[in-house]
């Protein structure tokens, strides 16, 4: 994945009012400020935007909600493409939409559904190819849609049991950002521990923890800029001096030392390959 | 606080079954393995142990529970001293108990009650004096009782709003461990963010995040050994290269870079002054 020309925008999810099971209640607020960035990166109001609510168990409502949210921002060329099976990922209609899109937006829900229904299909291949080769092509995703961008994808895991080996579950993602592990709803759901365990498992990868209403614009598959009202927590395991994850039995508490953490907020930048932070000068404006 | 001869044992609290408001339900399980360490450090079964349930809103039940727990371990000389006011901290009976104790054990509850009712009183002075000068004298505390040991004490704060400046509340603690900020119930209650903000406020202090059923035996006011079934998260802010906490307005998301984190578990050791971890060799037994 060298010389990436497309743009990736993972988003930490929206405000969830604490009612996880009732997805309907989470629909009220779609992060408009963040979506405005998505539209801008995709070329503006005339961009062809395809919303994929595959992760969701209520795809119609989620699709409608994004239609409304993008319409509010003045966009007119919006399609909802609900993929429910690998076969759905091979239809001519689906491939046409993905080929013509300036931006593909993955909704929240269950990230495993995204990789189960889309991973390895023609849609996946077109997405990877266009993301690699086309300047201005945008892949955005919120919550599950952001987590699925990684190669080593967090598919689940208990926040309260974390740091006990085996508390985090990993699965194959779409591999759009192979150097990172992405977690979302990071602050409200207390997901430090599970990201730490994920980084202990894959210390050569960077761990991103995205707060709600917060995202990153990633260019060149490498240069990240924080957008939104919250923060991005970055886990750099390259400094670890001790990490017993590999040798521990399941259910045993872990030891890891000298993990480096960055807390970044709006407009701060991060270079994945160099593992380098560029923080915003104090006087800079909010973007 | 140089040349400390006493022993400090902060404990992360017990298993809370997720019912925070109903303190009664949290009483079923008192961390026996950890209490066994407390008894051992205090000199064994014949030690005079004084339980102080001042932080609790149900001191009689909490006191009874500790009486039972210590009795189970074979201890016979256990007193419960419930301090409800600064005046209670000056009675001859109270001072006599504290003077004769081999171990004082602070219960959980609200840590501000401990410093409000005991801070600056004769009990506080005797505790500090004996802790400083008497080998084998033990001060233990669980949850609120552990948090109150610090000088800069976390008195409250929202876990879900953390990393937004002003989400954590600080107050004066008992100053028994002036180089540290202590937080408890660390994993289950997702308190990474508030400890990070506390360390951003006081980057010269070490932040300890104690999981439930987990504690540290601290000797010389400096040498920490992890005990119990969970983990201790250590925040070292001395490596920070950027920290805008001082200049940010309340309600603004923070930026901090190059925070060092250690995740320690049973028998791992930490030297506060040297900021140095000594992790357990793989083959060592559980203590």
UniProtKB/TrEMBL annotation, chains A, B:
Catalysis: reaction(s): [L-4-(L-arginin-2-N-yl)aspartate](n) + H2O = [L-4-(L-arginin-2-N-yl)aspartate](n-1) + L-4-(L-arginin-2-N-yl)aspartate
GO BP, one annotated term: proteolysis
Enzyme class of the recorded protein, top EC level: hydrolase
MF-aspect GO terms: peptidyl-dipeptidase activity; serine-type peptidase activity
Enzyme Commission code: 3.4.15.6
Superkingdom assignment: Bacteria
Function of the molecule: Exopeptidase that catalyzes the hydrolytic cleavage of multi-L-arginyl-poly-L-aspartic acid (cyanophycin; a water-insoluble reserve polymer) into aspartate-arginine dipeptides.
Entry's family note: Belongs to the peptidase S51 family.
Protein name as it appears in the record: Cyanophycinase
Source species: Winogradskyella aurantia
